[in-house]
Amino acid sequence: MPDDASAKTPSAKTHRQTHGRTHGTTDRLLVLAAVCLAGLGMPLSFTGPAIALPAIGRSLGSDPLLLSWAVNAFILAFGGSVMAAGALADQYGRKRVFAIGIGLFAGLSVLLALSPNLWWLDVARAAQGVAAALTMSAGAASLAQEFEGPARTRAYSLLGTTFGLGLAFGPLLCAWLVEAFGWRAVFLSTAALGSLVFVVGVPRMRETRDPGAQGLDLPGSLSFTAALVLLTFGIIEAPRPDSGFAPPLLATAAIAMLALFVWVEWRAPRPMLDLSLFRNPRFLGAQALPLATALCYVVLLIFLPLRLVGVEGRGEVASGLLMVPLSAPMLAVPFLGALLTRWFSPGLLSAVGLGIASVGLLWLRAVAAPGAAWSALAWPLLLIGAGAGLPWGLMDDLAVSVVPKERAGMATGFFTTTRVAGEAIAMAAVGAVLTALIEGRLAQVPHDQAVAAASNLATGDMAHAARAAPAMAHEALLHGYAVAFGSLLGGLAVLTGALALLSFVLLRRPRRVTSASLARESCPAA
What pTM was computed for the model? Predict the structure, then answer.
């Protein structure tokens, strides 16, 4: 079985040998198809529960905290384990880890469809997040071994476009499944997709690994995951009136775990994360991009359906149709961005895209009145999706290009960790901020009623919010929510614009080789 070093020979660039047969162009394209098909299932797992959350609440209970974890558990588990998954893929083989991940993903989707209560659902969602991390880390690292140069950029852009396909039509598909067959059908659909990848795609993959891998950095993995879990849980707990000193204590513990992670990685002979990368401005700029797309785009994928279905009372399919203008640009814009790199730098394209998305958020804030027509909402949503799509297809290659190919698992693992951890923290923070903003608009009712109503509205449960604050009319609750949501959109626009500027400044600086391990192989400038 060849290791990654074989891919450096001139003959391997044309014919990559594995198990005595030539791994040529057709095989590489089939590997790309398998990874992209797996990537198609990730947004379904991400956006599906957001569309189905009101129906899940009606079926399994309406506890706001447990309902929020139906989304956060998947994102948090994904973000907390994806870096370790990349290290495992480097050591034990990308094909093996990919097969294990997609198999577990399909099996856990079936268990989710059988959930008898919210606790079962939340735990299974966390486990599904770990399985998704194994799948996508190993799959993305496999692409780095199969493709080089411009072909690799196009491969990652196609992966981003396929992911966008799931984002574009996933909400509509899930909405139709919920209305036609119930919320459990959402999870059964991801089980079917995962099974297809396992049966058809996995046999076409070849095994590759990092010949210098020295095993999983367990202390580093555990300390990083603990830091992420503690921080996210502290943010989620912050708006609760009975949380007391829990949020600051959780934040302090998260900082301590992060410090422990840095200390462990600094002393490790071959760390899960090469900390010298943080001296590379371009690497830092690449990490700023997923946080920006989380704020301007991913947040809307979750909170906009909650508003449309749970608060405004629109039907699932009608709400799914409203999500199409936001997500449809992901079908083409990431690939278009890759083509534009022939004339413009990825840093410039990414900054311009984020600036466009920031303008779209301000436009949406101006027109998003309760009950607004599809035609009024579609154009700003389309602008946001198009703007976010430009960096979407460029981010992965920007992150991988600063490390040797043998450590692609580490690079993709950390980048995906940044991406998903940023999304998890953004979700928790936006939920907490929205709850606080809504509570501020309900000052005319007793404080305990305002807190309960705000918590329910933030998770898209107007019915329980009305029962929590019976003195307030439905129109007053809806107006308070709409004003708070508008303030949230304004804040997201400002943050997105600031990150656009920051990423542009960092990505236009010359690339620096930051350690001996990175100097062993020349990396192309992004």
Answer: 0.71
